[in-house]
Design a protein that fits this description.
Elements lengths: L17 E4 L4 E4 L11 H7 L10
Length: 57
């Protein structure tokens, strides 16, 4: 069997945590955490306006 292990070097948020995004002044709740970016480049280019690094959750 093949098992993949994923390690997160640093966790900034917890599931269920309420966050306030200061730049655009909105609040949200963390509902899931991805260990890395899983979308395609077209989505990233269209949606990620601030262009955060793809290798960070």
């Amino acid at each position: 069997m093949f098992f993949r292990r994923f390690y997160m070097a640093e966790v900034n948020f917890s599931i269920g945590q309420i966050v306030h995004y200061k730049l655009f002044d909105y609040r949200g709740v963390i509902i899931d955490v991805d260990y890395k970016f899983l979308g395609d480049d077209n989505w990233y280019d269209a949606m990620a306006r601030s262009l955060p690094p793809k290798d960070q959750p």
